[in-house]
Amino acid sequence: MAIVMKPGASDEDIKRVIKFVEENYGLRVDVSRGEFQTLLGLIGDEDKVDFDRLALLPGVEKAYRITSPYRLVSRSFFPEDRVIEVKGVKIGGKNKPVFIAGPCAIESREQIFRIAKEVKEAGADILRGGAFKPRTSVHSFQGLGEEGLEYLARAGEEFGMPTVSEVRSERHVEVVAKYVDILQIGARNMYNQDLIEEAARQKKPILIKRSFGASIEEFLSFAERAAAQGNKDIILCERGIIPIGRGRQFTRYSLDLSAIPIVKAESYLPIIVDPSHGTGRRDLIYPMSKAAIAAGAHGLMIEVHYNPNEALSDGPQMITPLEFKRIVEVCEKIYMLNSVEGC
Ligand code: PEP
Ligand code: MN
Q1: Residues with Cβ within 5 Å of ion ligand 2?
Q2: How far is ligand 2, taken at its centre, from the CA of residue 134, in Å?
Q3: For the segment 6-26, what is each residue's pLDDT rounded down to a tens digit?
Q4: SS3 (DSSP) at 35
Q5: What average pLDDT does range 54-80 have in this prediction?
Q6: What pLDDT is recorded for position 183?
C-alpha cells in the first residue's frame, strides 16, 4: 500500500499515520521523501488494512493498494530516479555511467595496488576485488579473506576510489562492511534473504547481482528486502542468466540486456551490467559493454588484470587495463549520444 501525504503535510501528520498503522495493523512503515510530497509504504501483510480509514487521517491525500511484490523499490510508488553517492561517485539517474573495475580476486598487495593504479588511470570510478570468493571447487583459490580486504581498502584510498567486495555469507558481513564502501551480494546469494537483510542493515550501499535463474520479478523482490530494512542505496547488477541449450557451447552465461530497460521502467534503482561474468569471454566484453550502455545501463562492472593468463580465477574473461580504457572511452561517447537523444 502507498499512502500519499498532501504537499503541506507536517511531520506531526506523518508521525500520526505511522503510529496509526503500527498500532492498528502491526505493520512497519517506510518513509520516502520526494521533492514535493512524502510517500509512506507499508511493510508486511496488508490484508486487514482499511484504506478508507487511513485516507481520512489529517495530512493524507490518498491511500491505495499496490499489489506488486516489490513496492518500495517500484517506480509506480516513487517516480524519481535514485542517485547513490559513494565518496563523491554518483551512481544512477542521468549521471555518467560508473565504471567498476578490478580483479576477480585480490591475490596479493602488489597485485591489487598495481591493478588499482592502472584501472584508475584508465578511467575507473570504483575498485572491485573479491576476498571471500564463491568457488565451485574447494580446491580452487578461495580468496585472501580479511587480509585481502585490507589491501583493497588501502589501494582504494591510495588511488582515490571507493571499493566493492562480495559478502558471501552472513558470517562475513561485519568484516566486509569494516573495509569496503559497497557490499556485493553475489548471484549465488541473490535468494539469501537473511544475508541481504543483514547486509542492508550495515547502512552502506549494497550491490545485488541477479541470480542466473532469476526472473526480474524475483530480482526486484529481493532488492525489496533490502529496502524494507530502510536501506534504499541499492545498485542492481545484470550479470547473465543460464544459456538455453546449445548457447552454452559459446558463453558462460547469456547477458540479458533487455533487463536494463525493463528494470528502469519498473524501478527507480540504478542498474549496472557485468559483461565479464555475463559472457565468460574476454573478446565479448567490448561489444557487450557498448550494448549495455546503449541500452541505458548506469554503469559497468568489469574484471581487469594486467596479466589475465596469470589470474588465479576467471582469467578467460579478464581484460587488460588498456582494453578497459578503450571501453571507458567508447562508452562515454555512447552515453553522450544517449543523452542527446534523451534516452
Ligand atoms: C563476482 O563479481 O566476483 C562474482 C563472483 O560474480 P557473480 O556473483 O555474478 O557470479
Ligand atoms: Mn570473477
Answers
A1: 104, 314
A2: 9
A3: 999 999 999 999 999 999 999
A4: coil
A5: 92
A6: 98
| Domain range list for the chain | 2-65, 84-341
Among 209, 253, 254, 304, the mutation site with the greatest number of ligand 1 atoms within 8 A of its Cβ is 209
Q: Cα angle at 323 between 318 and 329, to 5 degrees?
A: 130
Place of cell 562492472: 301
CATH classification code of 2-65: 3.30.70.1140
Q: Is the CB of 166 under 6 A from ligand 1?
A: yes
Query: Measured between alpha carbons, how far is 301 from 299 in angstroms, rounded to an integer?
Result: 7
Closest ligand 1 atom to the C-alpha of 301?
A: 2
Distance from CA of residue 243 to its chain's centroid?
22
Measure 138 CA to ligand 1 centroid, in angstroms: 17
Architecture of domain 84-341: Alpha-Beta Barrel (3.20)
- Average per-residue pLDDT for the chain: 95
CA–CA gap between residue 253 and residue 107 (Å, rounded)? 25
Amino acid at 243: P
In angstroms, rounded to a whole number, what is the distance separating the alpha carbons of residues 335 and 326? 14
| Closest atom of ligand 1 to CA, residue 134 | 5
Minimum-distance ligand 1 atom for the alpha carbon of 186: 8
- In this predicted model, what pLDDT tens digit does every residue of 189-210 receive, in sequence order? 999 999 999 999 999 999 999 9
Burial class from Cβ neighbours inside 10 Å (0-12, 13-18, 19+) for residue 156 reads buried
